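## tool: complex_structure
## caller: assistant
## args:
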Amino acid sequence: KQEVTQIPAALSVPEGENLVLNCSFTDSAIYNLQWFRQDPGKGLTSLLLIQSSQREQTSGRLNASLDKSSGRSTLYIAASQPGDSATYLCAVPPPGAGGTSYGKLTFGQGTILTVHP
Amino acid sequence: DTAVSQTPKYLVTQMGNDKSIKCEQNLGHDTMYWYKQDSKKFLKIMFSYNNKELIINETVPNRFSPKSPDKAHLNLHINSLELGDSAVYFCASSYSGRSTDTQYFGPGTRLTVL
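## result:
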């Protein structure tokens, strides 16, 4: 059974700092890995999807890396801003799901990020 | 323009009651989902529908009955509510069921059972 763990559970940093969020998974036979952002009282927003064949994916100040063999992904946020404050979740489809999972993602419990001015 | 909308946003009710949550997406997607986020913030899939057909039912109690009248709507009816049903329920949709498809989430319905 796939398990996804995120460390740290919470992180508080001053504005402008670069930071790294960690995600680990137990079964490396994943098709891809996604990072989401959840703002308080709101739904999830997809940030980055990194395919199993990729090592990195970038969007603006965000960079996600994936190391399947070690079962790890990191989300790097450069020059953090107070608007980055949110819960960040990573999620993977079932191992060996191939191209279709119909939403059967396993989520980590999230990292609560607070960026203070 | 709201992509995925849910109603109501908050729902407070007594144990034993029956309640429904509605979800609509205007993205033209074929696949819709219901997720449950418990008090520990773990998010788990409950159901997924593709073209109005049930694809995934993740061992959810029979008290939960989803209904998809058309591709744009996926409603969730809950019978005989229990304290443990208190959670935030999220609806989502995607173009198809492919793992590479971005899922678009609604704002959630916070259900409190007293």
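## assistant note: Chain A touches chain B at residues 31-32, 41-46, 49, 51, 87, 89, 91, 93, 97-105, 107, 109-110 (CB under 8 Å). Chain A is about 0% helix and 55% strand. Handing back to user.
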